Amino acid sequence: MRIDVVSIFPDYLSPLELSLVGKARQSGLLDLRVHDLRDWTTDRHRTVDDTPFGGGAGMVMRPDVWGRALDDVLEEGAHLIVPTPSGEPFTQRHAERLADEKHLVVACGRYEGIDARVAEHYRARGRVSELSIGDYVLNGGEVAALVVVEAVARLLPGVIGNPDSLVEESHGAAGLLEYPVYTKPPVWRELEVPQVLLSGHHGNIARWRRDQALARTAERRPDLVEALDPETLDTHDRAVLDGCEERRGWQTTP
Q1: Strand partners, 83
Q2: Which of 10, 40, 60, 176 could disulfide-link 68, Cβ–Cβ 3.0 to 4.6 Å?
């Protein structure tokens, strides 16, 4: 996979040289390129923004500068990603779909954002996704770009050493948050690891983990429980959720 990130602060993306994403770049599993938007300016001040039409506070990133950059970087078939707080919420499902793409381009806006005509223009020519990583506002799209790139890159074959690690984690195919995890020592500051995890009984461990995932999801993200397919819940699952319902006072899917 190839990913291009365009930003006025390319050094902001330096964490992508670290950890598993950095190793994926070094091994050739991921072709990741970071570009400075100012390289496509034409004035001596390297201007990328101007005042908004209609008035108002802040500055808006110019479409002509972005157009030159994206014309150079966006190859045929590439998918343009624009991080923005007004975008569609970015989820694990988005990450899974994007991981199947061959070429992503991430356009990092700043100030009041990128002139709306940029997304409109490139949407008419190909795929454009405006995505938000949460209901809050950041100073620019670089943090969101880091989130999107890492969420996608870790799903590429060979990036995660043990692919089984992806199966039971939060927001996976089961639709649940991950169960709590423990390691050595078995007792730490008078807190003990649950005995079932020390039992060696794989069936009991699997059941405990499933129960914990159900309970944790019900407590922290009841919206995810409501979205579960009832056909995926057995009698024990329903009993766990009924107990959570009694404690929390909210309704589960019948």
Answers
A1: 131
A2: 40
